[in-house]
Amino acid sequence: MSARYAVYFSPAQDSLLWQLGCAWLGRDAANDAALAQPHIDGISSERLHALTMSPRRYGLHATLKPPFRLAAGVTHDMLIAATRALASRMQPFTLPTLGVDVLSGFIALRTAQEGEALRRLADACVAELDRYRLPADAEEVARRRSHGLSAAQDALLARFGYPYVLSEWRFHITLTERLSGSERELLLAWLARHLAPALAIPIRCDDICLFVQERCDTHFTLHSRFALGAR
Question: Could you tell me the pTM of the whole model?
Answer without folding.
Answer: 0.95
